[in-house]
Amino acid sequence: MSVKIQSVAKALPPYTRTTQDIFPFLDIWLSGQEERFVKKVKKIFENAGVDNRYGIMGPKDVFTKTSFEEKNNIYMREAVALGKACLQNALHKAHLQPADIDFIITVSCTGIMIPSMDAYLINDLQLRQDIVRLPVTEMGCAAGVSGIIYAKKMLQANPGKRAAVIAVESPTATFQLDDFSMANIVSAAIFGDGAACAILSSYEQDPGPEIIGEEMYHFYDADYLMGFHLSNTGLKMVLDVEVPEKIEAHFGDIIHPFLAKHQLTIEDIDHLIFHPGGKKIISLVEDLFRTMGKKLDDTKEILRLYGNMSSATVLYVLERFMDRQLPKGDKGLMLSFGPGFSAQRILLQW
């Protein structure tokens, strides 16, 4: 019994700015800092590989001192709106109705809400009263792939069902105005807000690439690399400089044994559907794959157009491939990294 990804669709927050548009706000934020430090921060923004980003708040509100409660209230309101919009868009692409969804998995790590987003979507869209809910938090950037893995396992055990995986993130809601650490600055330079939904199906007749393999890979003793610290001012970014180095050290173990289980090598993979963690990580992965003729053009383009939107970003990359008419038999490898530290992998076949 096969499980396929039937459709993928995104939803964009209401505010958008280019990186150049943000510089006047940086000048205000950094006023009083040493000139050398200001130049360094601007250089980080210029070299981040992000030309544009979207947000649930405009730059003025992001750079205004507000409480954790105030920003989280905006997150709650906008997360529900974005989750509803991307689910509706994915349903439209798949020619489905809200009542056609049997499982709903919502993923987010950039705000806190109880009841979780899925409860509001059940009410707003009149989803089935017996729908099975799974809200996933604390998985960070990996959660878009994690959600699809969970959905696949649910559907594998339930033929003739469909699941919606909805990823909604607002890293701008976690920006710390009084924190001038490199972790806060780098995250501000590379992250943006966004939402995406993937609909999976275990109906044999439904179209879409089939999930033919999925696995998680957990790094030992690496929990310090990435995450959030819950402070009095909100979710404070934890982002260690060792992340690229750790990924490089483990990369072969992440990729090759997983493919070998399916009698494949990286040369058999036609499409790399990788989460754009940041320009440095993309360059690292491209260097590792360069001799094999593999490129990350779509990953780089998503980073350029939207920034890193945590868990939703890999679904933006996947949507680009889903919207193309790819040849039957083509294989794609999805990959994302997240707190823990972990790597999440999915093998697709069109």
Automatic annotation (TrEMBL):
GO cellular component terms, A-Z: membrane
GO MF term list: acyltransferase activity, transferring groups other than amino-acyl groups
Top-level taxonomic group: Bacteria
Coiled-coil zones: none
InterPro entries assigned to the protein according to its UniProt record, in alphabetical order: Chalcone/stilbene_synt_C, FAE1_typ3_polyketide_synth, Polyketide_synthase_type-III, Thiolase-like
Residue ranges of domain FAE in the record: 38-205
Gene Ontology biological process terms from the UniProt entry: fatty acid biosynthetic process; polyketide biosynthetic process
UniProtKB keywords: Acyltransferase, Transferase
CDD domains documented for this protein: CHS_like
SUPFAM superfamilies in the record: Thiolase-like
Active site: 141
A Pfam family recorded for this sequence: Chal_sti_synt_C
Name of this chain's protein: Type III polyketide synthase
